Automatic annotation (TrEMBL):
<protein>
    <recommendedName>
        <fullName>Pmr5/Cas1p GDSL/SGNH-like acyl-esterase family protein</fullName>
    </recommendedName>
</protein>
<keyword id="KW-0472">Membrane</keyword>
<dbReference type="GO" id="GO:0016020">
    <property type="term" value="C:membrane"/>
</dbReference>
<dbReference type="GO" id="GO:0045492">
    <property type="term" value="P:xylan biosynthetic process"/>
</dbReference>
<feature type="transmembrane region" description="Helical">
    <location>
        <begin position="12"/>
        <end position="34"/>
    </location>
</feature>
<keyword id="KW-0812">Transmembrane</keyword>
<keyword id="KW-1133">Transmembrane helix</keyword>
<dbReference type="GO" id="GO:0005794">
    <property type="term" value="C:Golgi apparatus"/>
</dbReference>
Amino acid sequence: MGLAGRHLSRNKVLFFSGALFISLAVGIHLSPYLPSLSLPHLASFLLLPHPVSASASSGSSCVQFLHRVSWSNAAGAADNGSGGGKARAWSWPPSLASACGFARLSRDDASLLLNGSWVMVAGDSQARLLVLALLRLLLDPAAAAAAEPELFRRHSDYRAAVPARDISVDFVWAPFESNLTRLLREDLRLAPRLPDVLVLGSGLWHMLHVTDAASYGDALASVAGAAKSLRSQLPEPPPHMFWLGLPHLVNHMLNTDAKRAHMNGTMVHAYDREVDRRGVLRGEGGSFLLLDVGKLTQGCGQQCTADGMHYDGDVYDAVMHIMLNALVIESQQRI
């Protein structure tokens, strides 16, 4: 398998070999999602280990199949400590993984993939759990365990680094949509550079404290507009943008009366509908690729949550690997 590469602005593209990544073109960053004709330079040439089948490559390509994971009880697993039951394991169906090249990344593979990159995740506690999954992949177990208390300081931001690979990971506490709009319209415009990967998500705090889907939709429209403005007006390539969807809520397990009164399946459906119709997601003309936490949490099931809202680490591990595989697939398709 060959690899040829040329510099693409500040980002670079990487590739699979065998079942996992084994090398990078020049070793840093990822190509943006923009069509190749709009890019000032062409980046690295990327190949998948197996040819993509006609059915998998049609429409929006393999990206649309990334959430088709299966859940099973982990072999020999004991109680997971969540109060729900045994630990669960996730996987892609072998035929789909082979056709599309989906793969779990090792620590080395993920570090190569994100070499020199800045990853920013902004949102509420769901976003924190995604950052924790990423740190558990990038750092050794002792370092990840040491980082967790700092990451979960209440209502605070957090920054981590992987010095050996020059990777920065930021968590920005931004529980409301207005926080995300300000991040896009003000904070990132003042930053010396943009993140290479930007993950945003919101809705749980709005659902609890405002409980109005239409109001949530109006706020989302501002986020969507700010993201489009950021992509179109800045001279450098924009970040890869992901939207962290709402989890499946198990109403009777929620731990306060207010949550049980305001947060239920009907409200989640109404809030999800606003995400679909307010121009947030790429399929609807927006800037973000959906990380469908709702589908993954529902698939894992009630046994994967202790409080009906926050799920076990395996769920966010799946979310993270879906995101990382999407980065590679989208990069390949845009060359």
